[in-house]
UniProtKB/TrEMBL annotation:
A GO MF term: catalytic activity
Source organism per UniProt: Tamaricihabitans halophyticus
Entries under Gene3D superfamilies matching the protein: 2-enoyl-CoA Hydratase, Chain A, domain 1 (3.90.226.10)
Protein name as annotated: Enoyl-CoA hydratase/carnithine racemase
Length: 265
């Protein structure tokens, strides 16, 4: 890895066309306070703005991905004269993190070990794909804490990944999803021996594809959540036609035709 940048709570490393952003408070299980949220948002925005970066791996240092919001850090001040407005302002960086992850052209790959709790769970759910260790645990303790299950988009993303019924059961029970549960529900493709290594390999593979196809595939997968099949077919057709006009696509098709002609000879 090269191009390391580090703050007290987040590190960013670059390896050719890959960025690795790590939550870096392992002594606090990467709990998210105001500073960490601001640093993570800044790191994601830096990656989003770099056209030479083609994929992002998001992970946590130490034994866990993130234990969620740091409730001891004063993130939410009950003594605020307008606690609702004050809390919303404090959490705006978290909201912007999720928006940035979904709006950036680069696919976001979450490498998860240990606990991903609350807001940490929500961040993993906002990734494009997750590679998880056998000890991964995704927890949603919101109702136990007297608050709603709507945290950083989790009540929107989770039902779309694992289904409405499974999501409702997990969230209403303030439960925990094990690694096995995550695989069985489609939250992750399988259990990984080394989630970070597999995430890096996956990211490098993505970075090797022509950029137009990867970027617009992310857009199509996202838009499919909110559109009709009829409208989506039109979007796919337009993106496909435009893609065939790009130079990398022309070169790839020419190479494929050449291989086919050699096989037929």
């Amino acid at each position: 890895m090269t191009g390391l940048s580090s703050t007290s709570g987040v590190t960013t490393e670059f390896d050719d066309a890959i960025a690795v952003v790590s939550l870096a408070r392992p002594d606090r299980l990467n709990a998210l306070n105001r500073d960490v949220l601001a640093q993570l948002l800044a790191a994601l925005r830096e990656v989003a703005d770099r056209r030479d970066i083609r994929a992002l791996v998001l992970t946590g240092e130490g034994s866990s991905f993130s234990s969620g919001l740091d409730l001891d850090s004063g993130l939410i001040d009950s003594g605020d004269p307008d606690p609702v407005a004050g809390s919303q302002a404090a959490l705006q960086a978290g909201v912007d993190i999720i928006r940035t992850m979904r709006d950036m052209s680069q696919p976001v790959i979450a490498a998860v070990r240990g606990h991903a709790i609350g807001a940490g769970f929500a961040i993993t759910a906002a990734a494009d794909i997750r590679f998880i260790a056998a000890d991964a645990r995704f927890s949603a303790p919101f109702l136990r804490l007297g608050v709603t299950v709507g945290d950083l988009g989790l009540s929107w993303t989770l039902p779309r990944i694992i289904g409405q019924s499974r999501a409702a059961h997990l969230l209403y029970s303030a439960g925990t999803m094990t690694a096995e549960d995550a695989v069985n529900s489609g939250f992750a493709p399988h259990v990984s021996e080394s989630p970070l290594d597999e995430s890096l390999d996956f990211a490098k593979n993505l970075a090797g594809w022509p950029p137009y196809g990867v970027e617009h595939s992310k857009r199509l997968l996202d838009s499919a959540r909110e559109t009709t099949l009829r409208a989506h077919l039109d979007s796919e057709a337009r993106a496909q036609v435009i893609g065939t006009l790009t130079e990398p696509a022309k070169a790839a098709m020419k190479a494929a035709l050449a291989r086919d002609s050699r096989k037929g000879a």
